[in-house]
From TrEMBL, chain A:
It is a multi-pass membrane protein. The keyword Transmembrane helix applies. Keywords: Cell membrane, Membrane, Transmembrane, Transmembrane helix, Transport. Belongs to the binding-protein-dependent transport system permease family. CysTW subfamily. This is Binding-protein-dependent transport systems inner membrane component. The keyword Cell membrane applies. It comes from Albidiferax ferrireducens (strain ATCC BAA-621 / DSM 15236 / T118) (Rhodoferax ferrireducens). Residues 63-258 form the ABC transmembrane type-1 domain. GO terms for biological process: transmembrane transport.
TrEMBL record, chain B:
Coiled coil: none annotated. The chain crosses the membrane at residues 12-38, 91-111, 123-142, 173-195, 216-238, 275-296. InterPro entries: MetI-like, MetI-like_sf. It holds the Pfam family BPD_transp_1. The keyword Zinc does not apply. It comes from the Bacteria. One of its GO terms (biological process) is transmembrane transport. It is found in: Cell membrane. Belongs to the binding-protein-dependent transport system permease family. CysTW subfamily. Residues 87-293 form the ABC transmembrane type-1 domain. Keywords: Cell membrane, Membrane, Transmembrane, Transmembrane helix, Transport. This is Binding-protein-dependent transport systems inner membrane component. Gene3D superfamilies: MetI-like.
Amino acid sequence: MKKLLNRYFGKAWLAVTFLFLYLPLFFMLVFSFNNTRQDAVFTGFSLRWYEALTRDTKIVDGFWLSVQVATAAGVASAVLATFAAFVLVRYRRFAGRTLFSGMVNAPLVMPEVVIGLSLLLLMVGVQNALGWPQRGMLTIVLGHMLLGMAYGTVVVQSRLLEMDRAIEEAAMDLGAKPFQVFFLVTLPNILQAVLAAYLLAFTLSFDDVVIAEFLSGPGVNTLPQVIFGYARRGINPTIYAAATLLIASVTLVVITYSVWVARQTRKREREIAAATRAELLALQAQ
Amino acid sequence: MAKLNLTLPGRRFVIGVPAVWLVLFFMLPFLILLYISFVDMGNDISPFKPIWDSETGLLKLKYENYYSIFQSSDGSGLFQTIYIEAYVRSIWYALCTAVLCLVIGYPFSYFIARSAPNLRPALLMMVMLPFWTSFLLRVYAWKGILADQGVLNQMLLALGLITEPMQMLYTDVSMLVGMTYVYLPFMVLPLYANLVKMDIRLLEAAYDLGASPFKAFWLVTVPLSKAGIIAGFMLVFIPCVGEFVIPSLLGGPENIMIGRVVWDEMFTSNNWPRASALAVVMIGLIVVPLAVYYHFTGDAAEVRR
């Protein structure tokens, strides 16, 4: 009885919840190909909303701005996250360590409204004092870096903790300078996590409305801001077309990344297995 | 054996880069926020002016902004302001969302953790995939599903369950559906991580001792997953308190949450000091459950050791 319940109830619960998770995605996919504005009835297949999308300059401009912002914020976040993770994992003791780790992690729990507001106050203050920077792309990137760095640090940190320090020490023993050790040994070892941090920061930036709304100037709108503006007004199938393209590209990136990770892991396992075998053979030969 | 110890300047550089960045862009803005929450609003167009050339001296703190949050303007009632209402509402919706996520997410994580080991990565990937696609768009899609002319209403009409479209959008229900939907993965991931590590032999022991499946679940599995439940609950509750986008798109005009209030004070009323004070109180609201959380996880970690 229990097994039966577990088997069918479990599968049903999984199925229904996955249905819930994928329902909006499926809905947008279907209705992006609808040939009328009608929301609830699929009246026929058409690509008109995709065509409308390419002609919508607000969306196209927002998209390019978002790509630039997310790329810049992603790269900068990944670099800073690597620094911060390295400090947290390798420097166990230094003055202000508690404060440091607090500052790294706080953006994870801070409401985005608060982050946006406080950064806006800073930007306005600096601008009043120095006449620079104008609110725009740069200020949005700075805001997104805060989020990207916090999430990225968690990712890089866990990889660094797993890493075997003996290989770094071996490199040191062989006479490598500290920064050589970092770029030739440490970085290749944690590259997968740094890339994951970059992807995470990119996605966070590409997805963020709140911080961008606080920090963008007039006429500077990222894609989420444009979509948010449309979404408040009503339903527009052009957005479904944009969503479908985004979902398709994200799926592609995520699948490519996980295939790459799986291949890397398998490669490493094979190398370890080969090394172990060689060692065993050497032992047998003795 | 050589240790990877950088020379002092090198070490200073490695710590300094992220530290300086965080001080400039996290600590400093927060201090400015705190500072502005203690000054008067300018009667100028620029809400900033009176702060910098204050004649009474820079450190004269004004408590009016905080006072006005807690005390209604005619002085009649303490804790009876629209701000307090918005705080209470935000906490209430965040609690409801966290409970809904737990109710849906616990069995979900449980069954993923108990599925065949080679299936688990794929199932987890399927949980993560919607999480990686724009949450704004997914919330937007719910608008199309729940609208009066939306898919759900049309389906119910076609099935003859209702005779005219139900008002689903812009209600508490639509907002909670949206929040539960978006935050479900935040509940599932820590719960899964916890449940997948559980020692199955403990359950077998409970059965051997004559416990019914329900009793075994309630007395063994649930207590063992306490850390996962608390982690998931916090991961949903905390961001939900400050949520801005989902209430704006799916919530009604009468259930305004605190994130929106801060926004309106800032950009509509142009009252920067009060917006700052509201934000500072909001941080306070989040620090309390966090402190409780660390208290609990601290204990849990000690027990495990």
